[in-house]
Amino acid sequence: MLKIGITGGIGVGKTVVCRMFELLGIPVYDSDARAKWVMKNKEALRLELQAAFGKEAYNDDGELNRSHVAGIVFNNPERLAILNNLVHPHVATDFALWAAMHSDKPYVLKEAALMYESGAWKQMDQMIAVYAPLEVRMKRLLLRDKHRTETDIKAIIDKQLQEEEKISRADHVIYNDDQQLLIPQVIKLHEQFLDQVK
What we know:
Blueprint: E1 2-7, H1 14-23, E2 28-30, H2 31-41, H3 43-53, H4 66-73, H5 77-101, E3 107-111, H6 115-118, E4 126-131, H7 134-144, H8 150-159, H9 163-169, E5 172-175, H10 182-196
Parallel strand pairs: 1-3, 1-4, 2-3, 4-5
Helix pairs in contact: 2-5, 3-5
């Protein structure tokens, strides 16, 4: 079974691409959703996060106090690195267990915005980068995230690895630029992966 990573910055359309692969019967691991689950449900990680960010890191109901933690890490690269170094190994373990549950499939996808930054790409056999130009991403995000301003979105984009770097490191690129059709690109890759595991 191949493990394929899929990444790209905010607003490139990773979710849409992943849904297309799911329609082809390919399981997709959503790293953001699983990280939230792991932070809530793994007692060892909860204790590590409370030690690093205070008891206030969790609400009384056991949910991560996202605003508290975000307030600490957003403009503090050292504290963000601490958060990532605590969370990413637990997510990597969770992914390995999840992938083992899908060993009957020809390949699985792991979707993560921070695939290179977290080192998660090292677990993958191949990498896909989803690409969209900055102006297209901004337009999408302003429509999708009504609570965010253009300045907010630019701040998030500036903190992510540059798209050119992601493309140069990827084995495959899917262009979601409103110029090229997505479905043929996804099907072509799907067929390539199936050929590789025959």
